[in-house]
Amino acid sequence: MSRLLLLALLAAASLPAATRDFTGTWVNADPTTRSITRVRVSRSPDSIYVQAWGQCSPRDCDWGRVTARAYSSSVSTSPQRDAHTLVASFRSGASRKQLVLTLDDDQQLRGELMTVFTDSSDRSRHASTVKLRRSGQATLETPPAPAEPEVKVILHADGSIEELYPDGTRIIFTQGGQTIIGPDGTVQTLSFFNAQPGSPPPVPANTDHRLWFEAHAEQLLGIISDLAGEAVAQEYVAGYEADKTLFEKMQKRTWLISKLAPND
Fold first, then answer.
1. Which residues, other chains included, contact 89 with Cβ-Cβ below 8 Å and sequence gap of 6+?
2. Residue range(s) in the chain whose domain bears CATH number 2.40.128
3. Which CATH number fits domain 3-134: 2.60.120, 2.40.128, 3.30.1300, 2.60.98?
4. Which positions ≥6 away from 135 have C-beta within 8 Å?
5. Mind listing the pLDDT tens digit for each residue in 157-205?
């Protein structure tokens, strides 16, 4: 157990609680946060699960649902009946995150988030604290302005991108064109006629050069995981990239990021 995690566990000043006291949807008390925006805790007879979302635009990034570990406040009590802390670990292509959740005396959820970057960037590991309240719980903060209707963007395993609009319109993008499906089911297909790209170069024989390109490709996949969710990104890798070369993967991933990234 890391020293930082141990300090987080020791510093948690919460009363004993059953795991059921953690269950539910929790939202950040700060509507302007640039960290965790929402946490959902659920459980089965044998396990407890944590799903978290981070601040992104135009929609929050889903970190996925993971199995969490419950800790009791004493060696003589059961975590199921006397849950003091939940610890959940999230992994993307570019980082590892560990979230430590404790219930405060005021029945709000305190989160200690520790992030370690696993890509080749120079970003430092860091820790932050968030305060979460149950969804629907009264708050004194001024409510944020109503959000614009959200456009849902989906990455499919075949490498296509689909945009779903509130009125039911669907637009499916491929690198060769797009298909627009109206709310009434009408279909319009647009094809893009671009110059045929040249054949991708062979993978460098030099080990250092090859490792550099592989690291860059992994960074691109990490960005896709952050934008679309790690599970979706892995389905895409298994469904589309199985027979692709390193440079073909990089080219496709760059295009996907251009479609998945929000336009300011």
1. 66, 96, 97, 98, 99
2. 3-134
3. 2.40.128
4. 24, 25, 26, 27, 38
5. 899 999 888 888 899 988 888 899 988 888 988 876 655 556 667 777 7
Q: What is the pLDDT of residues 61-109, one digit of tens each?
A: 889 899 998 888 777 777 667 778 899 999 876 788 999 999 887 778 9
| pTM of the model as a whole | 0.47
Amino acid at 240: Y
